[in-house]
Design goal:
The structure is a homodimer of 264-residue chains. With 264 residues, chain A is of the alpha+beta class. The first copy, chain A, contains 6 helices and 10 strands, in the order αβαββββαββαβαββα. In chain A, the strands form 2 sheets. In chain A, strands 1, 2, 3, 4, 5, 9 and 10 form a 7-stranded antiparallel beta sheet that branches. The relative contact order of chain A is 0.25. The interface between A and B is medium-sized, with 34 and 34 residues.
Chain lengths: 264, 264
């Protein structure tokens, strides 16, 4: 039960018809999910480790544990508790649109890798009046020209998310999001908006600034994983549909402590 | 070339007869090494991820890349460039003492996992006059009663290293080592020295305090990996011999930045 209205059990039953999980569990840590075959699991986890701004590793969930995350959601089943998945093979969709259950498409022994998600820092930006989402729309995301550090068949370019921020708030936004190291952390300084077509994002929805005197601010984005699963990956790989994340039992504010703790 | 006298090439040739790699490359990041079979690679990496104080993940090195670490030592071969290894199977030694080359004992497709090492923060403690090593001796290490967060066949208890610190320096020592998050970070508060036999460490060498008014201070230790590879692990696993670490091309002071960077 993340709040009075919403619970994981209701996600698993397909109760929700949502544009995204953003508003479902305010304050709770949300995670990107990538489900890869056993033979590529070490490669993909290492790919995340080498690209930590886009893919901060939270946990890896195994079939033998019912795809639970022992530290973040011991009772969950990541394969059931994400509203919608996409399944690809050699970088191409294997299904017509999203599916609720990716299991029939996956090889036995697949593992689900959880990585940090910007929904976690967005809650803080909203509550401090520094940013607000466009109702019913996802943030725009762009494929950049920055190559990821590759590992095995996983490569591709960095994907970034963009939010319009008032110029006089940029320093505060940097401070707030820096504290969310496991959810992409501070904005990236290496992105030149002139190199992107802001009106035509590669993922998500185009957004206009909602106030005057705003500038586009960019963060490393977990959709980088989807862009990294290209033609070189011969097996079926499932990823959460953009915006439809896995929601943990842990609050974002407690996540750093929970993930670093020595004694249970 | 880490300094005027020492280089990785000389380690690889077996030039050194050392008690440890501590003094070989002052200021350079050193790493624990655990070499596990392909089928257990995702389990072991996840085990590290779930026990980040003892086993902060630095990189994973694959046979196809010649066991190099792309970010920390692109020209290295981790299996050749560590002075001595131990090889175990089902938690028992497979060889009589340490070996220079573990490859003949390992299954094809094994991966080498690099995790942070306290030698990296020791340099800072020494240069700030807060601690000094006992000449020719390793620090004492103790198996605690704290269970690790398990993953697959990897479990066991936390191992901690101990250093005597002057009581009036403990706060400064905490501040200095906190900055080395990828090398075990701050001391642990959960360890009760009364529960350990300080005169009989489980690994390393017993040390007496070198000054009056000292107290024992404990850190999570990478030897936790060796204690975690127990009877449930059916395959040969190689670990660096205690004190004989892998030395990276990256300086400890730059490591946080190098490991987090987005653009090469």
């Amino acid at each position: 039960m993340w709040c009075e209205k919403h619970s994981r059990a209701r996600v698993g039953k397909g109760t929700y018809a949502l544009a995204s999980t953003r508003s479902l569990a305010p304050g709770f840590l949300q995670a990107n999910v990538t489900v890869v075959p056993a033979r590529l699991a070490a490669d993909f986890v290492t790919f995340c480790l080498r690209n930590p701004r886009a893919l901060p590793l939270l946990d890896v969930c195994f079939a033998r544990d019912g795809f639970a995350s022992p530290r973040l959601a011991p009772e969950a089943d990541v394969l059931k508790d994400v509203p919608w998945f996409r399944v690809t093979k050699q970088g191409r969709p294997l299904t017509n649109g999203s599916v609720r259950d990716p299991a029939p498409f996956l090889s036995p022994g697949s593992v689900a890798v959880l990585t940090g998600c910007s929904f976690s820092f967005e809650d803080d930006l909203v509550s401090q009046g520094l940013w607000r989402p466009h109702p019913g729309r996802n943030v725009p995301m762009f494929r950049t020209r920055i190559a990821n550090a590759p590992c095995g068949p996983f490569a591709g370019n960095l994907v970034v998310s963009m939010r319009w921020i008032r110029r006089d708030n940029v320093a505060r936004v940097r401070a707030v999001t820096s504290a969310h190291a496991i959810s992409h952390g501070a904005p990236l300084d290496d992105i030149d908006p002139a190199e992107l077509n802001l009106a035509r994002p590669d993922y998500g929805d185009a957004n206009d600034a909602q106030e005057p005197d705003c500038q586009p601010v960019f963060w490393a984005c977990g959709v980088t994983a989807q862009a990294a699963v290209g033609a070189a990956v011969d097996d079926a790989v499932a990823t959460h549909s953009p915006g439809h994340m896995f929601i943990a039992d842990v609050r974002s504010a407690d996540a750093n402590r929970v993930l670093a703790r020595v004694v249970e």
